[in-house]
Input
Amino acid sequence: MKTRTSLTLAASLALLAGGATAETTIVFQDMGAEREGFNEEAIRLFEEANPDIEVEYRWQANEPYKTGIKVMMESNSPPDLYFVWAGSFSNDFVDSGVASDISDSEAAGDLWTQGAATGVVDQFRYQGGLYGVPGQVYTKYMWKNDAFFAEHDLAVPETLDELIGLCSRVREIDPLMTPIAFGASESWTINHYLTILFQRHVPLETALADYQLSAPADALWTDPGYEAALEDYVSLIDAGCFNDGINSVDPNVSRTMFATDLAAMTFCGSWCPPIFNEQGFEGRYSAFDFPAVEGGRGNQDGTLVGTQGFQVAAASENREAAIKLMSWLLSPEMQALQARTAGQLPANASALQDGDLPAESVALLDKVAEAPVSVPPLNTIVETSVSDVILKSGQDLTAGTITPAEFMERVRAQALDAKSRG
Amino acid sequence: MTDGAIVRPLEAPARARRHPMIRFLKRIIPYVVLLAYCALVLVPIVWVMSASIKTRREVFLEPLGLPEVPQWGNYANIFESGFQTYIWNSVVVTVGSVVPMVIFSIMAAYALARRVFLGRKVIYLLIVLTYAIPVHSILIPLYRMVDDMGLLDTYLGLILPHIALGIPFSVVILYSFFLDFPAELEEAARIDGCSPWRILFAIVLPLSAPAVLSVVIFQTVSVWNEFLWASIAASGEDVRVWTTGIMQFQGQYSSDWPKILAVVNLMTLPLLAIYILAQRHFVRAFAGIGK
Amino acid sequence: MGMATIKRRQNGTAFDLVMVAPALLLFGLFIVWPAIEALHTSLYDEPNRGGGFIGLANYRDMIADPVFWIAMKNNVLFILCNLVFQVGIGTIFAALIDQGIRRGSTVIRTIIFAPLVIAPVAIGVIWSMLLEPNFGLVRQGINAAGLPYPSQGLLGNPDLAFPSIVAVGAWNYIGFMMTIMLAAMQGIPRDLYEAARIDGSSAFQTFWHITLPGVRGALILCSLIVIVGSFKTFELVYVLTRGGPGNSTQVLGTYIVEAAFQLFRPNYAAGMSVVVLIVAILFGSLQVMTSRRAA
Output
């Protein structure tokens, strides 16, 4: 209530100052602290350009957001524009009828459609409608401590076996140095390893049919590649590649370990460089591709590329204003600003000049463009209940309480159940 | 060894040697046990205090040392990020919940314990039976109802369910207190022509201070520390309270322990200070629940 | 005289109504009604799957859901462990303070009680850092003592995570139990102890024959508080492990919230709520039975 009062106060002050009135107020719910600076600037500029619209911006951190947004969307007064990961996460909102179909806005050629890459936008098409737009793409790479690698003459591993060899090498050089910093108190980080390993081991069509539950029931999630991928994951743990207590290390702590010379490598997203830099690690690290798996039947030089963006609430009373803000956030200027201030990769890179973006972003975008195959993180494309089993069992597998075979039994059982329920 | 020691009968010195030893152990063991446990309580609390003014590196690598340069900026940061609003919201919600909760509970408990009217036993039974109900057992319908009332992200949306959830426990405690209240006092007042209101306010309440204080302190601590309902009913920022604020803060600075611990410390120290100053009341309040 | 009686009673009825109404109204609206609603919605399919009437299907799902049983088992285990550790150790400490020491009892009492005023959320945050597997104080302490530290840490290991939560819970509540027990012990007449001393009873015999019977009521009360409190548990688990690793520390509170707001199964969650409600009401009747002045 206090906020409301101060908002009204701010509005009346604006009235005195500029003579303009904010007729419409929209609520914009975003995710992630790293976007706070960017959003505040983008919204300030937006409100300047649209004096009749006032934006109430809110954000939550990653893990609380996953519950928080579902709570908000269940309510009678959901935010007008809100953040989503493309895939099962965004589709859940479509299924429960709280997301708005914006096909009309696309047909009308609203501002956001200019320069939006079709392939990326398609990730928000579902059941014949368009439910959302991409705001950023993200990818994930191995990062290495350049000085440490140079000092000990370590080579970038090309294969998983080399990576495992490298882990023991790092331990020999310095027992206190963690080869790969890894925190999975939030279990999506395990999911990212599994996403890439499944990609290496399982042919793409097979995997997609399993993820979307479109494979016939007797073939669902039965490819032996999955179990082989899980075995690989376990062998990384057994080889001492990671720090202790993976399951209770916060992902941010693992980033700090890497950025403070306590770990030689880490597997981290395209959003990580600003986090490393903030701790004074700028210019002392570089990215390399996740190693290939020899004999794997999947794709060996593919990568993980996810899309995140925004949906408009079906219940929004200010749909037009919400679409306006969405368009604004997707404009080339704002996408460039987003890359500079939040370190996030633009979703419509083709509309941007190279000079608009920081060199790091350009390098990552080039890597994404070079990758022949890209798969979004498992938890964003696999059906929600199956994804939950994968997330939870990932922690069990990490702790060593279940075997890869048991992991797959659970996944298959849940997938069959979900498929039978339609 | 002196000659005298050798001359003594065999058994006596044995007893004499063991006896003080056992007595000494008997005296010392309780102290050892209790002080060891005190250390177990104190170390984390002291750690929080010192860590909150350290740098990240110091917290990770020298957890027990003193900070080289105290980082008071960690505290300034709390206020720059607007945490004081959450604290204020917590104060409003706590006061707004506990005051009516206790008043309503006193009224109901008094009537149920001391008056005769139809249905009082049924009502009391209903209240006692539900006192163990946790908020998560009614979370979803409660959420929908508060939403339909338009009370999500408002003070009332937090306060009304808090009052309701606090009533059963408060009524149970106060009921058993009022039941023991000497009937003669009331009877005398009634014969003097006092109205039931006067009897309650002028005679019963002043003598009930310990029980009421028990309930007030217990419920204040409960509401102040509540997290689940606040995280669901006030997921926006309008009336975010300190417990949900701290989780947001943790999400924002998850590897920056000193910053998070500064908040933890800021929210814990005042309560600890009040507790130490008003210790007698606290202990009596919590022990009083047992009466 | 007859007139006066009638008048008094009418007066009384209005008074009683006013007295009971506010509490009853709020109680009915915000507890009883949602409880009935929980039962009602649990008989329907999820809103995103049509929301039709499905009878007891949610309850059948529950019986077949291994996670529900993990949560149930953990809740029961949590109650038992807390009874042993919180009430047990609290009673022992109370006896030590009451009988064993002469000086410094106030200071010791103050310190042991102190964690109770710290919010569960804050306790969770503090202990998740103390138990951090690489830099946490607990690991550094154990290593300094020359002992090995489990490589999955404590909270990251499905076998150790639950005992760790129990330990943190004990840290939080032992002082509370101790305080209630101590108050009861101090109410035992001193001359009973004096007599026992003259009879030459050992400390243990005195505790068993004099202290324990003297604090029977307080012991029952402590047990009730612990049972109800452990059954309500949510914050500590949520902050320390979020029910993980895997589902190993899931309790009913965390699983209900997860099912309702993360898995989009609010009506299934409502079904689990009903189970919790039934158990809570059973505990409530326990209170009625143990209370000597039950209505």
